[in-house]
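can u do me a favor
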């Protein structure tokens, strides 16, 4: 298997990224709430910058840096650090299709987002569902630190435990 190329997201990547997301939802239940309109979810107005992983002409992974949208990790980090919300951004929409995993694609996508955070003086935080253990191991390997726990509410009164992380400082 050729290694995936990690590169900035381009608008032509949207259908491929949506197909990849649908696969990841089927295998991993990510995102938990499901995605009725994957293209809109991926290309939300809150995205500051995004990257994709491409392998043999197919999109196999994605990550974004996003403006805060009320994530628990954002308020926890602001409380704990006194940082201004304007200097905080959220790493989100990270996924790699199962067939392309365990080749450091998730790591390289996350590193691309982390470099962007450092270059733009944005401290990255995130909420991850506690069930997504591979993602938590990945963040911790890259130096992310747990800053608290929360409960993610979705659907019809459903809820699931989540963990909040902050990226290492500059
Ligand atoms: C989390 C996720 C993005 C990781 O993607 P990935 O491409 O497999 O990530 P990596 O390859 O960098 O790391 C995964 C594992 O492969 C291992 N690995 C990396 N390169 C390897 C190699 N060349 N040979 C063997 N193992 C390798 C890593 O050490 C890691 O091991 P671990 O699972 O024991 O911790 C993927 O599992 C996923 O999409 N999960 C569902 C969605 C999700 O949870 N998203 C997070 C939302 S917050």
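np, heres the sequence
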């Amino acid at each position: 298997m050729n290694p995936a190329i990690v590169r900035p997201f381009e608008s032509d990547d949207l259908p491929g990224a949506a197909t990849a997301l649908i696969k990841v939802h089927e295998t991993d239940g990510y995102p938990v709430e499901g995605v009725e309109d994957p293209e809109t979810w991926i290309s939300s107005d809150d995205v500051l910058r995004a990257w994709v992983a491409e392998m043999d002409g197919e999109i196999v992974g994605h990550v974004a840096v996003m403006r805060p949208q009320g994530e628990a990790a954002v308020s926890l980090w602001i409380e704990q650090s006194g940082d201004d919300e304007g200097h905080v951004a959220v790493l989100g929409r990270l996924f790699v299709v199962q067939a392309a995993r365990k080749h450091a694609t998730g790591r390289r996508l996350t590193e691309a987002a982390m470099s962007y955070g450092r270059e733009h003086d944005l401290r990255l935080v995130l909420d991850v569902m506690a069930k997504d253990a591979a993602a938590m191991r990945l963040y911790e390997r890259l130096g992310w630190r747990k800053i608290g726990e929360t409960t993610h509410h979705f659907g019809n009164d459903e809820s699931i435990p989540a963990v909040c992380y902050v990226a290492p400082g500059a």
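The first helix runs from residue 14 to 28. hope that helps!!
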